[in-house]
Design goal:
There is one protein chain. By secondary structure, the protein is mainly beta. About 10% of the residues lie in helices and about 40% in strands. The chain is built from 1 helix and 5 strands; from the N terminus they run ββαβββ. The chain starts with 10 loop residues before the first strand and ends in a 6-residue tail after the last strand.
Length: about 120
């Protein structure tokens, strides 16, 4: 039985980075009051139809949608560990960075996350 070629989907990658120094509380607990990690977001388009050149508009649109979702997080958004995410600030709008060997477009943007960490995050 031959292998069937699957339809390729756009790819979204969030790459965690260290960010800037946390904001400490004077005389407070041993964990920072606010942690400010950064994230790099990459969105790659799908392959084009019939091995044609891919259309970068889908990647650009998806990157803008991801940016909107990140920047509209509610301050009560939290993880199972108790971390509360206060806000996400973009460092710029999504921009094209490259096309891969088969012509798929990649868009990127960065963001800084403001969160109140819990002891489970340290």
């Amino acid at each position: 039985m031959g292998l069937r070629r699957r339809r390729r989907l756009p790819v979204v990658a969030l790459i965690s980075q260290s960010g800037v120094a946390p904001v400490d509380m004077i005389g407070g607990p041993t964990i920072p009051a606010l942690d400010r990690p950064t994230v790099q977001v990459l969105v790659r388009s799908t392959a084009g139809p019939n091995n044609g050149l891919p259309d970068p508009r889908a990647a650009r649109s998806l990157a803008a949608e991801v940016a909107e979702v990140l920047t509209t997080l509610s301050p009560t958004t939290s993880t199972g560990s108790g971390t509360v995410y206060l806000r996400v600030e973009l460092s710029g709008s999504p921009f094209p960075i490259e096309r891969d060997a088969v012509g798929r477009a990649t868009y990127a943007f960065g963001a800084q996350v403001w969160r109140m960490p819990s002891t489970g995050d340290l």
